[in-house]
Amino acid sequence: MDKEITNKKFWENVAKWYTPMQERKNAKLYKELCEVISKLLDKDMQVLELACGTGQLTFSLYKKVAGWEATDFSEKMIEEAKARARVFNLPITFTVQDATNLPYEDGKFDTVVIANALHIMPNPDKALTEIQRVLKKGGLLIAPTFVYDGKVNKVRIWLMERIGFHTFYKWKSDEYAEFVCNRGFNIIDSIVIAGEMLPECILICKT
C-alpha cells in the first residue's frame, strides 16, 4: 500500500511538467502509438480511455470516434488535461476514476484504451476485470505498456524511482501478453515499438 500511495503522489507531483516532458522525450513514441490506434477506431465507437495523463493520446484521437471519455486516477493530471482542453476549446470529457472500480454500466463501451498503466498498478488484474465488464461483447481493448525487452534506459528509471516512481510488474512482451490473455482476453495482435526509456508493447485484444 505504501508503494501505491507513493506512486500516486509521484504522478500528482509531476503533472505540471508532464506534458512538456512527454513532448520532449516521447513525441516519436506517441506519434507511432496514435498511428497504430487510429487504424483500429471508427466513427461509431464509444471509447473509454483509462490513465489518460494530460491527454497525450486523447487530443490526437478523440475526433476519430463518436464519443471519447478520458479518465485518470490522478486529480492533478485531470486538472492539467482539462486546462489544455480549455485552451483549444475542445469538447472532451475528463474525469477522475479508479480503473479498478469504474462507475459505468456493463457493456457501455465499444473500446477501452489504457496506455502505459497496467505495469505500474498494484492490481492490474482488477483493472482488466473492470475493463471486461464495461466493454460490449466482442469489444476492443487497446493496451500499450512499457516492457523490458531489448534496450532499457536504466539511469532514467533509477532517477524516477528516486523521486517516487514505482513499477509493480517488469514484464517482457510475451509475459505481458500471457498475463492479459490469462485474464480472459483474446490477443489479436502484439506490436513492439522502440521508446526513449523502454520498448512499448501494444496489445490489441477482444473480449
From TrEMBL:
InterPro entries on file: Methyltranfer_dom, SAM-dependent_MTases_sf
Pfam families the record matches: Methyltransf_31
Any GO molecular function: methyltransferase activity
Biological process terms in GO annotation: methylation
Keywords: Methyltransferase, Transferase
Domain Methyltransferase residues, every copy: 42-147
SUPFAM superfamilies found in the cross-reference section: S-adenosyl-L-methionine-dependent methyltransferases (SSF53335)
Protein name: SAM-dependent methyltransferase
Organism in which the protein naturally occurs: Clostridium drakei
Organism lineage string: Bacteria, Bacillati, Bacillota, Clostridia, Eubacteriales
